[in-house]
Amino acid sequence: MHIYKVGGAVRDRLLGRPVSDIDWLVVGATVEEMLAKGYRPVGADFPVFLHPKTGEEYALARTERKSGRGYGGFTFHASPDVTLEEDLIRRDLTINAMAEDEAGTVYDPHCGKNDLDQRILRHVSPAFAEDPLRVLRVARFAARYAPLGFRVADETLELMRQISVSGELQALTAERSWKEIERALMEAQPQVFFQVLRACGALQELLPELDEDAQALATLEQAALHAHPLHIRWACLLHALAPASIKSVNQRLKAPRECQELALLTGECLAQGNQALTLPAAALLELLQKFDVYRRPQRFEDFIAVCEMAALGDGEASYPQAEYLRGAAAAVRAVDVKPLVQAGLTGQALGEALKGERLKALQAYQQD
Q: For binding Mg(2+), which residues are annotated in this chain's numbering (predicted)?
């Protein structure tokens, strides 16, 4: 029985990056032996165990065979006879197919260290093409390591093209696709993820609405540079699409509610935000009320952030509408409802009177 660190832990240590999660591989053991040592089984598809003290995951060495469509169409075989080399060859990229033993010796049968040094993302074997999810994974790694100068190997990009035209990407569930997209959006250069997908034809299959939208990627790049959270990055990516297209993408990928909501509101209101400096008071009030700036001020602030990133992505040096919109929101929030209530107004009459006072506040704000 031999235990190795594998995958990302070895890769990132060699790159000098922080190692957060460690994947452990056990070679030469049976399920019974693992149970006897106190490991707790958790794997549904193949034998994975939790360490009795650390709680870290330990997987038995395994091989796999394609048995159906999609990323889940595989049959796994785990036994003490499966070697380290047999387990590593089923992995996606050479830089993820290295192992390290307890003495610190690195096992690198597929030249992953050389590809790390050359800054190349290269597939391990032709079996790469059997799993369509790997198209998204490679694009995500390209986004993560773009700051270090990594690029996708030509032959790997060609395999990704073959997968894209094969129809296999359509077998990916919305949940699996979104998980990769979500992680990619939070990388240092998320626009690279979509650039790689476009280069291999996968963007046309998964997000055809964005296939010709270069400005969306420039806006997303700005959102990453400004360290914005996920829902703002998602809205930045979709900001230039028509509301109907945004709704379609949201539903197809089952994006989280916060992401869906901000993206759709941005698509509906971006033009008004950009025209804020010249909007009549009534139109400006309508915009503010659509975002419910009284009870949900942060949502309007998020919208302003997307508008600002879009302007920067379009080459503008600044976005003066941002402070103007914030001031307008503060002006209407400052209107006190108490005098109207004390005057005996209720129901619809109160609502109309409050709206009128807020309109006056905006007119005064514009005059100032």
A: 21, 23
